[in-house]
Structures are given as structure tokens and as C-alpha cells.
Design brief:
about 20% strand, six-stranded mixed β-sheet, globular
């Protein structure tokens, strides 16, 4: 069942105590914002095909998410993937095939729409984040709405690019983590999403 409007617009508060750590990265990605790379779409297509071959009929959707999915938007050199499965809680059906396809299982967040998180970050490989969601997750819809709004509104794309650069610089100076970088962007992301939701008629 698709996510409802009420689910899509509901705010989410990150609760680190609910995260179940499964593994660790072999290589830490850098928190550096670079100019758009024309190779990003093709990288996603390559990853998408590997996932499709690994999981087949279990897949409901594979979408390019995050900043590298937005043409013209500077980003970290990381491909983000939203992978929607029929049942994200059924780890037996997909964890081993994804690991055999080269993705490392890092964490699970069952109370956040059954989220599971995999990465490809082997030495000399480009970085990939794979977010596994259940069929009713509103996060996939939120990611799509955010992306489509940035493509529609150049002013918000420029605003978000500015905030990303500032957050990356502040994170580097402070020696903080990727999560700290993400949290520094949250206020702006929320404001942009509100404008997109209002345009869609989801809020007044």
C-alpha cells in the first residue's frame, strides 16, 4: 500500500538509540561537495542492474535518490539508492544476495519504515548507499518530491547547494561525522519540503 499524504508530511526525528549496528565501513567517504559529475547517472544505472540481477521479483522499485540524482546540483561523490521491496523485514530473502552483489550491510532501523542500510565502499570502488524500504515507506515519496521541487525551482536548488557547502565546511572544521553534516542541513531541507508540500496541496 502506498504511503498516505499524512505519512509523507509527518516529521521524523532521528533517534540514534533505535539504530541497530550490523557492520562497519571499510572506507570512510569524504564529506566534500564537488561539482555535478556527468558520470553519476550511469553509475546509478550500473548499480541498479546489479541489484535487479541479485533480487529480481523481490523488488518493487529502484530509484536514484539524494543529491547526485538532481542534475546541476553539487554533491558528495556518493550514489544514493532507494530500494523498495515487498517485505523489508524479511532479511533472509535479500541480505545475502545483496552482500554477494558487493554491498555491505551496515545497519537496520525497523521502527523507521523498516529501513535497512547497505553500502559499497570497497577500496577503489565509488561510494554507494543503498537504502532498503518497505512498500509503504513515505521516505521514498519524500525524496522524490524534494528532487522534483529542486528541478522545478532553481532558487531552492541554489539555496540547497549553498547550505550543503556550508555544512560540509563546518563539519570539516569541527572534525564532525557524516550524521553531523546531515543534521546541519535539516532545517533547510524541512523548509524546502514545506514549500513543495504546499505546492502539491498537502498542507495549507
Amino acid at each position: 500500500m502506498p504511503a498516505t499524504v499524512a505519512q509523507i508530511i509527518a516529521p521524523y526525528e532521528y533517534q540514534p538509540e533505535l539504530v541497530e549496528r550490523v557492520g562497519s565501513r571499510t572506507v570512510q567517504p569524504s564529506i566534500i561537495i564537488i561539482e555535478p559529475n556527468s558520470e553519476w547517472p550511469q553509475r546509478f544505472e550500473e548499480v541498479k542492474e546489479r541489484i535487479r540481477k541479485a533480487l529480481g521479483a523481490l523488488i518493487l522499485d529502484i530509484a536514484h535518490a539524494g543529491s547526485t540524482s538532481v542534475p546541476g546540483l553539487p554533491a558528495k561523490d556518493i550514489i544514493d539508492v532507494d530500494l523498495t521491496l515487498k517485505d523489508a523485514s524479511d532479511e533472509v530473502s535479500y541480505v545475502k544476495p545483496l552482500e554477494e552483489a558487493g554491498f555491505r550491510f551496515l545497519l537496520r532501523e525497523p521502527r523507521w519504515h523498516q529501513h535497512r542500510f547497505f553500502v559499497e565502499n570497497w577500496p577503489k570502488a565509488f561510494h554507494v548507499n543503498v537504502h532498503v524500504w518497505g512498500s509503504d515507506s513515505p521516505e521514498v515519496a519524500r525524496h522524490r518530491i524534494f528532487r522534483d521541487w529542486l528541478l522545478k525551482k532553481p532558487a531552492d536548488l541554489e539555496l540547497y547547494a549553498k547550505v550543503k557547502r556550508e555544512a560540509a565546511e563546518q563539519t570539516a572544521v569541527a572534525g564532525d561525522s557524516m550524521m553531523d553534516y546531515t543534521q546541519r542541513k535539516e532545517k533547510t531541507i524541512h523548509e524546502i519540503l514545506e514549500r513543495a508540500f504546499r505546492d502539491l496541496g498537502y498542507i495549507e
